[in-house]
Structure to design on (150 residues):
């Protein structure tokens, strides 16, 4: 079952290490108004949903589908692509439990959102896959350095 918008907003904020004050200031609203978004007392307006999607680097549809009821024949619903499934971050629970555990706290404390996700998923891989990722990153880095030099 899909999480409610308020649950999802709270998980996204916590996964990024943001305070309610920070998110509220990004949306140019009061912290109290943002708190109402996370409790479900107020449904965020469309412009706030767009700004939240931009802040978290997700598709606005991931937020809107949690508040919009569709009455569409199943024959017309598109099958989601693997990329959109990854981008939706449907279940952040294992990630949040891992990065917030006391033994991982220091390691993840000063990382940005993308670095946290990268390190979390990297550590889930076996050694061979980790080495493949490192090799790929080295090649991409060298390639980008040559492209920037032109």
């Amino acid at each position: 079952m899909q999480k409610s918008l308020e649950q999802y907003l709270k998980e996204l904020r916590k996964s990024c290490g943001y305070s309610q004050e920070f998110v509220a200031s990004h949306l140019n609203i009061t912290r109290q108004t943002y708190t109402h978004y996370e409790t479900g007392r107020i449904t965020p307006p469309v412009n706030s949903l767009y700004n939240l999607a931009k802040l978290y680097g997700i598709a606005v549809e991931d937020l809107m589908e949690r508040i919009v009821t569709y009455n569409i024949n199943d024959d017309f619903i598109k099958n989601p692509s693997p990329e959109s499934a990854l981008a939706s971050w449907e279940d952040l629970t294992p990630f949040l439990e891992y990065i917030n555990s006391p033994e991982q706290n220091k390691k993840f404390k000063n990382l940005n959102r993308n670095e946290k996700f990268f390190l979390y998923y990297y550590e889930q891989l076996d050694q061979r896959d980790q080495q493949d990722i490192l090799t790929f990153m080295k090649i991409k880095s060298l390639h980008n350095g040559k492209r920037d030099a032109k």
In short: The CA atoms of residues 3 and 107 lie 28 Å apart. Residues 127-149 form the longest helix (23 residues). The chain has ten helices and no strands. The radius of gyration is 18 Å.
